[in-house]
Amino acid sequence: xxxxxxxxxxxxxxxxxxxxxxxxxxxxxxxxxxxxxxxxxxxxxxxxxxxxxxxxxxxxxxxxxxxxxxxxxxxxxxxxxxxxxxxxxxxxxxxxxxxxxxxxxxxxxxxxxxxxxxxxxxxxxxxxxxxxxxxxxxxxxxxxxxxxxxxxxxxxxxxxxxxxxxxxxxxxxxxxxxxxxxxxxxxxxxxxxxxxxxxxxxxxxxxxxxxxxxxxxxxxxxxxxxxxxxxxxxxxxxxxxxxxxxxxxxxxxxxxxxxxxxxxxxxxxxxxxxxxxxxxxxxxxxxxxxxxxxxxxxxxxxxxxxxxxxxxxxxxxxxxxxxxxxxxxxxxxxxxxxxxxxxxxxxxxxxxxxxxxxxxxxxxxxxxxxxxxxxxxxxxxxxxxxxxxxxxxxxxxxxxxxxxxxxxxxxxxxxxxxxxxxxxxxxxxxxxxxxxxxxxxxxxxxxxxxxxxxxxxxxxxxxxxxxxxxxxxxxxxxxxxxxxxxxxxxxxxxxxxxxxxxxxxxxxxxxxxxxxxxxxxxxxxxxxxxxxxxxxxxxxxxxxxxxxxxxxxxxxxxxxxxxxxxxxxxxxxxxxxxxxxxxxxxxxxxxxxxxxxxxxxxxxxxxxxxxxxxxxxxxxxxxxxxxxxxxxxxxxxxxxxxxxxxxxxxxxxxxxxxxxxxxxxxxxxxxxxxxxxxxxxxxxxxxx
Length: 688
Fold this sequence. Notes:
3 domains, elongated
């Protein structure tokens, strides 16, 4: 090892050590916000950080402040986050210490990091998958010369050994091994979870666990020895850069500080003396002396680090705090699609079913944009989706752009974070809304919060397609409506179209939107085979047709008439067809205004409130059970905004409040709304 590398490593370790000691000494000033430090882990973190390049992507975890220092960040940068200051370069004071997000040209790229231990592993693997895709498609990452700048990039995911017990880690390892992705999993094993130790929680360590994934090589090293760590990582990184395959490094380290400032080590630790005997600091100090540095050289480096840390801390204490108005920035990146454009109903075109409008939209996008790709369960060439919503796409664009994944909803959803971070636009599917639940952790923790908690640096540009709703004896695992859960996740946009033209226009708008979008696609409308849903078919819009989010459609508009009872129906998806059919069968098209929301977020409140103020009565129609639902919340909002204009309570109709939709067709029809049920509710409300 070069002497300058050893010196730099020692300097970074002294800095990290001094920071941890300063935080302890000034506990009352910094304990307002919970933090953890790298004390004991510094050697392996610095050994890695000094070898990464600006083209690489890193996913540190909450104990990796020494790694961040080795990337070139200053103690002051980290302290701004420690103290939740306005100029915190990662999040603007929004998230915890050592939860970085970085997009500097001269440093490794760090997408948003969450606090959910191990959850970063899927987004990190998504970055590696994106790197691989770009290389296969000729979109970059190709070596041009022998210069450092032209080396192929790698992804690094850092995590603690306790988190490797998470099920989502297995999904990431499985995909990395299966697809042979260029990623390094660095596992720092200090033998502890919080107060639970390894013997209580793990059947094996990460090195032993990795042996179960064919194609994922692993080594185990002493992570408290800087020289050993640096040289081992040097070989591994070279292997990944050249052979483009995954690797796991299991590094044994001591934990020399608290789990976090809020969970003190003396409360539960019985191994502190043994841990202190493995401190990486005296090891690297001896290596420095053995390399020819004098005791005075060592002392000078230590003193310089302490002085820098003290000076930066004093500056950080004086830094400005966020202002109240700073709360309301960077939840979304502005979208370029703000108005309806293109031809919705081209002359001479024939009507097509809703599923074909979606299929043609994706095909047009993939033809135009090589960054666009589609993956999920059974969307590949053999089947093209269980609803044929991806039919022929794999044949047209190849297996690298349209491919099957394992049954891994968490990976499908969370990998989009990484794919987006490297400049791709993934369109992904979960097969049924009923199976979205394993993916909600990633959707909530990683996808939806990335833009806000990175202060706008890392919006996740993705489309998640979710077939939803009952469609004729689908039974309890293929019929659910889940929009109330999805609408409670802030930071995503949600479409729920009722017809093919809207689906195509919204799909195009979603693609050009830099934010995450969930499109709920009703299975009963895909083919218009459910009676009364012919209105879901559409003349296919032109290729340039886009429909902006947040613009409801007054599908049936009326004029307010004196002495005539009128009503607004607010609905979406299948509810639009129940509402229109009920209105027609009652012969009340001139009394009932029907609003198709099209998107559940953003919600077009102006159109809703204007209509209700005009008609004086309102019915919200949903397919979900109505208790505690999105529809019930919307009813309450309408009641609040329009109270003095109302002639009756705002009413809601939805499915019966039962745990699941039964398979038997009689029970199913008893549970879900229908045209007849909506008619009865209309009459009740008009006669109120």
